[in-house]
Amino acid sequence: MTQDANIQERPMPVTATIIPQLSLVHVVGTGTLTEDELRSALTTCYAQPDYRFGMPEIADMSQVGFIDTRFDIHQSFVKELATLHADQGAALHVVFLGLTGQPALMVEMFRNLVAAQDPKAKIETANGYPEVLALLDLPAEAIQHFPKTCQTESHPV
Fold first, then answer.
1. Domain at 10-150, CATH from 1.10.4030.10, 3.10.100.10, 3.30.750.24, 3.20.20.220
2. Among 10, 28, 43, 115, fewest CB within 10 Å belongs to which?
3. Residue 136 per-residue DSSP state
4. d(CA 127, CA 144)
5. Pick from 108, 113, 107, 117: which is nearest to 27 by CA?
6. Can you say how many angstroms the Cα of residue 6 is from the centroid of all Cα atoms in its chain?
7. Does the pLDDT at position 155 exceed 50?
8. String of b and e for 113-128 (b: at least 16 CB within 10 Å)?
9. CA separation for the pair 41, 36 (Å, rounded)
10. What are the phi and psi torsion angles at 95 (to 5°)?
11. C-alpha closest to that of 51 among 32, 27, 75, 78
12. SS3 for 37-72, per residue?
């Protein structure tokens, strides 16, 4: 057995999935995230034929313990994201949920950096999926389009 056989591949800590019935992107993070992992997931999502700039992005961070980044990397990522959307004539709209600890602080920094880049961008926070649906003016039944694990969740307030 080689040493490589003992190395287990780490599962993808972030996914970004389009929910076409609701015309939105559902991002789910777990564990420790890096800016590169988030950038990769979003880049892949944005390349999908169903993606439209301006779609709201729901970012579930309830299972994220830490976002591993530096200020300069975070600032560059935010500028890239805001510019990409603005170049397409759409404002960035993200609703974060399940925020606690360090990820909550990183999202607050994200919100401030985005506001400096694009005053039309909308960055919101919610405590759970029912609140997300309300913020997006979607009916309660829309929850059925999210993964089963999201349909009975609860997040700390």
1. 3.30.750.24
2. 10
3. T
4. 18
5. 107
6. 32
7. no
8. bbeebbeebebbbbeb
9. 9
10. -115, 115
11. 27
12. HHHHHHHHHHCCCCCCCCCCEEEEEEEEEEEECCHH
**Residue owning tokens 């935010």:** 78
Over residues 12-35, the pLDDT tens digits come to: 789 999 999 999 999 999 999 998
The residues near 51 (Cβ < 8 Å, ≥ 6 apart) are 18, 25, 45
Residue 58 identity (one-letter amino acid)? I
Q: How many residues does the chain have?
A: 157
pTM higher than 0.85: yes
